Amino acid sequence: MDWKFIAEYIPLYQEAAALTVKIGIAGIAAAIGTGLVCGMIGYYRVPVLGRIVSAYVELSRNTPLLIQLFFIYYGLPKIGIRTDAKACGMAGLAFLGGGYMAETFRSGIEAVDAIQEESACSLGLNKVQTIWYVILPQALAVSMPAFVANVIFLLKETSVFSAVSLMDLMFTAKDLIGIYYNTTESLFLLVIFYLLILLPVSVLGSILERRARYAGFGT
Amino acid sequence: MEREVLEISHLRKQYDGQTVIDDLSLTVHEGEVIVVIGPSGCGKSTLLRCVNALEDIQGGQIRLHGEPISQKSRNLQQLRQKVGMVFQNYELFPHMNVLDNILLAPVKAQKRARREVKEEAMALLGRVGLENRAESYPRQLSGGQKQRVAIVRALCMHPELLLFDEVTAALDPEMVREVLEVILDLADQGRTMLVVTHEMQFARAVADRIIFLDQGRICEEGPPETFFDAPKTERAEKFLKTFTFERKNKSKSGIRPGEEKL
User: Fold this and answer.
1) Under CATH, which number does the domain A3-214 receive?
2) B40 burial via Cβ count (<10 Å: 0-12, 13-18, 19+)
3) What residue ranges do the domains of chain A occupy?
4) What is the pLDDT at residue A117?
5) How many C-beta atoms lie closer than 10 Å to residue B253's C-beta?
6) Which residues of B touch A137 (CB under 8 A)?
7) CA distances (Å), B223 to each of B28, B33, B113, B196, B200, in order?
8) Would you say the pTM of this structure is higher than 0.90?
9) DSSP letter at B70?
10) Contact yes or no for B147/B90 (Cβ under 8 A)
11) Residues of chain A contacting residue B105, judged by C-beta atoms under 8 Å apart
12) What does the alpha-carbon distance between residue A91 and residue B158 come to, in Å, rounded to a whole number?
């Protein structure tokens, strides 16, 4: 192992990791928003929109991110929509994650007893208040484990960003291998940096899970 | 006669073509306690749920102080605020503590000042002996305590009518009493209530009027003394008999092992 090489290229990896995290956070945030809206539309079986949402969920979950990125990066400009690589990465992550999140949130809402909704309604709360104060907090508590798994999965999926020339961790590693043939060191750094990003997320996730379980249903 | 709070006329409720409530009419006056009893599946709970528009109805009308209440009512939220409902399984919100459970609707739906409602909530919790449980979560309470919280939660909305849907059916015998005493207390305060219960002794004590439902119709109604001691219909008599037990042969000799006669 060439430690001098490793020391020299750590800053490059740091930069790439920052980009991965930045796009990851933005993309996942968008995925959560998309998922919440779609999950609710799915649960309440809103006419027309419900059909569109289930078509979207199937499309996003049953196609690889790489293909989705190609469509956004090379396809959209053909119909006049220009995207830069970063926006493309974010959009791809939001598109893929939105489908997963929608199903996660929908199942969470389904797990809340219907009579909880009736209980809230009978107190004179309107539909929005019922969803916001009574249904969603309980639904999110139920879906927390699946939610955390989604976040970790999506962060890992960012490794295909290099395909649309985003200088993320994967891109950096491939680049260095191409130039210097230091395969072992480059991949070693790659693994370390992914772990550095994902381990804290994973730990934070299990804390959140425990909290949610306690607040929700910890009998 | 006192003023009418609730007026149900010719109510009809069907599930998938099966009639659960059939041409039922009932008037509840201010301060009146009506206890609805009847065999399971007779439509008691459905009746309460219709009053709160938790069910859609297929015929007839329900009026609250003269205003029709149904799922189509445009001011349904306002109407529901006037009707407090207590459920069999409490239906407290598990992610909120006792106080937040109670404050949610008065603060969010009625837009009342949190501090004012909190004062009232604490006073009411005191009345039901739970003033030191305000910060507890539902999972930390016994069934009887949960149900008393649910009653306080309904009361804090200042309802004009209270609905109790088999509120002791999920409780241990000792806890049944602590909940029923709260309801008796409310009756003494002159609250208007519609109570569905299987506790016959309690029904007798609390009711101004008993409604006996069978197959979605009012089979018999009257003051509790008359109903329990001298039911007019055969159906009611048969129903009341299910609450008493008798052994046919108490003097038979014991059976030794090995000679059981089956």
Assistant:
1) 1.10.3720.10
2) exposed
3) 3-214
4) 94
5) 5
6) 95
7) 14, 11, 42, 16, 13
8) no
9) S
10) yes
11) 120, 123-125
12) 50
